[in-house]
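Hallway conversation turned thread

IA: we were arguing at lunch whether anyone had actually written out Aminopeptidase N end to end. Turns out nobody had. So, for the record, here is the sequence (478 residues) and right after it the structure tokens. Reply here if something looks off.
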Amino acid sequence: MTTRPVSRTLLASATAAVLTIGLTGAAATAEAPLAPADGAPGIGDPYWPLDGNGGIDVSSYRIRNSYAFDSRRLAGRTRVELTATSDLRSFSLDFLLDVSQVSVDGEAAGFTKTDGDHELRITPAQPLAAGTDHVVVVRYADHPASHSYAGETNWLANGREVVAMNEPHMAPWWFPSNDHPQDKAIVDVRIRVPKGREVVSNGELKGRRVGKRSTTWHWRADEPMVPYLAFFAAGDFTIEKGVHRGLPWLVAVSQGLGRADEEASMRLMRRTPMVVAGLEKDLGTYPFSVVGGLTTSLDVGFALENQTRPTYPAVGSSYTSLVVHELAHQWFGDDVAVQQWRDIWLNEGFATFMEWRWAETHGGRTAAQTLKDYYSNVSASSDFWDVVVADPGADKVFDDSVYGRGAMTLQALRNRVGNEVFWRILRSWLREQRGGNGSTEELEALAARVSGQDLSSFFTAWLHTPGKPAATADNGLG
């Protein structure tokens, strides 16, 4: 910075002004600027305090990995584009693998692994100023199966197949991230595997580069996503694709399944575009540019709502309700993500309710009858009623009551406010929160505003209080 000499006249005037202020007792002292600080190792979620990180906002991940099936070793680099949201001396990314090199804006940066190796603490050559954009490149190589976090060992692989799918955590096993639903980002994935093997990920297949011994598959999702919703699967897959009502779809089924299971799984996967069209009748336009699904041969034991392409175990051809559940999550959980993990019922309760709704519109029981059966058949002494749905705790975040009682809450609300107002509430929620995050408190306020009713006692009974709600009209049960 260049400075200029101060004239004697200006100096005298300034001195007089200071003396005058001092005489009146009103002198003000300028606050010294705060020094750059270390970004917090967590974003502030009480369930998993190390999830996410303070001081940064990620806009994109460009992941370039290679995977060896025989050794189950993953190696690569990820380019993270982020904005500093405060003045930072250092910051963290959530990552479990062994790191060899980190750079920030092309300059080598210091780094350490802390807090059980979940936190990659990065110290750039120069502090980052609030509001400035930066490029972080992390290089790594490791065996993901050797790592765990929060009691989870999430890497799923055998000698022929791998699938990176899990919730609430998955990203730290294969790319460094700001791993919390509050920070969505564009995800661009390139995975190199031995020639002849397939890779499937989120979004659209942008291309393949085939070499003598390997093939690199390039996938990109056009809409920002929560880190745990990013996935890839590699192995031997049968892939089918098409366009339904203008929406491109692509589905894949592992060839590691027996022939009968593979054919049954493909029949189920082919229902994906039809299910989306059905859900659009209630929820409005599908929120993303492509859709699909993948069935793995690995013994995962659950399905997951990976954005644009849910992943499934082999469950046969008749389990349409599972596809309905995971595709409903594209609206509830993917497009509108939770604000904190305690809000998980906004994902699981809504997706379960849409299963009930699908049954009611496809020749099955009405959702009202399903609610009635649930309520009648689950005794007041059951543990089902012990969980506080709006804040179940980290150990109960995927408890059956979060799904079942969450869905019951929605049908009871439908009974309470009427069918037309209920669907206006759901569509207003999706429209107003689109592409962002939502909390239980925000939903409650919206429901009251749209319905014009005081619903505080209703939500207290269903979401905030352990115990079986009373069978009253106020609770949507009269």
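OS: looked through it. The mean pLDDT is 93.
IA: good, adding that to the notes. The chain has three domains: 36-234, 236-333, 338-464.
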